[in-house]
Amino acid sequence: MRDQLLDAVERLLVRGGVDAVRLDAVAVEAGVSKGGLLHHFPSKRALVQGVVERLADRFEAVLPGPDAPPGAFALAWLDASIPTESPTGDGSGADQVPVALLAAAGGPEVLDVLRGRYDAWQRRLVDNGLDPAVATLVRFAVDGWWTSRLLGLAVPHDDLHRRLRELLVDLTRPGGGPVPGAADAPEHG
């Protein structure tokens, strides 16, 4: 039932942000009694924190372990966040679950969960065999990119999407740098 409740919270967060997460609305969305909900999650904050922890667990599950080759962690960070091709069509589906993550970041206790995870991920990035500044640059670029996608802020598409992703992939290679010929590419895509 716990996953059923967290699924319901994710749907409400995607549709209406953190304000849409009310205990009665979650119970209705999940098709359970309010008592059943309270048995697993005694408060709205516990629900939102549960969603954030589950999302972080899912993200963590696709990241390589500590013995991964140099750059593998930064590449996995990119692969888990930015698709190889620019998305098309409706952006309100399940791939918008990061909306929940962003919305949930509003409360200090929930934000502490994220801070703890990011601290651990950042340590793994800088210890993964790349120049720590390059690994962090990739993380910042990816985080900014998915935030741009999340909020619909001048999101790069098509060729620009592919070229940006290629630049980041190249940075994840040991000794990586700009893609040859990238400086010759058109400025607008």
TrEMBL record:
User: What keywords does the record list, in alphabetical order?
Assistant: DNA-binding, Transcription, Transcription regulation
Q: Where is the HTH tetR-type domain positioned along the sequence?
A: 1-59
Q: Which GO terms describe its molecular function?
A: DNA-binding transcription factor activity; transcription cis-regulatory region binding
Q: Which domain of life, per UniProt?
A: Bacteria
DNA-binding region range list? 22-41
Per the UniProt record, one Pfam family is: TetR_C_28
Please list every transmembrane segment annotated in the UniProt record, as residue ranges: none
Concerning PANTHER family, the annotation shows:
HTH-TYPE TRANSCRIPTIONAL REGULATOR BETI, HTH-TYPE TRANSCRIPTIONAL REGULATOR RUTR
List the protein's name.
Answer: Putative TetR family transcriptional regulator
Q: Which organism is it from?
A: Kitasatospora setae (strain ATCC 33774 / DSM 43861 / JCM 3304 / KCC A-0304 / NBRC 14216 / KM-6054) (Streptomyces setae)
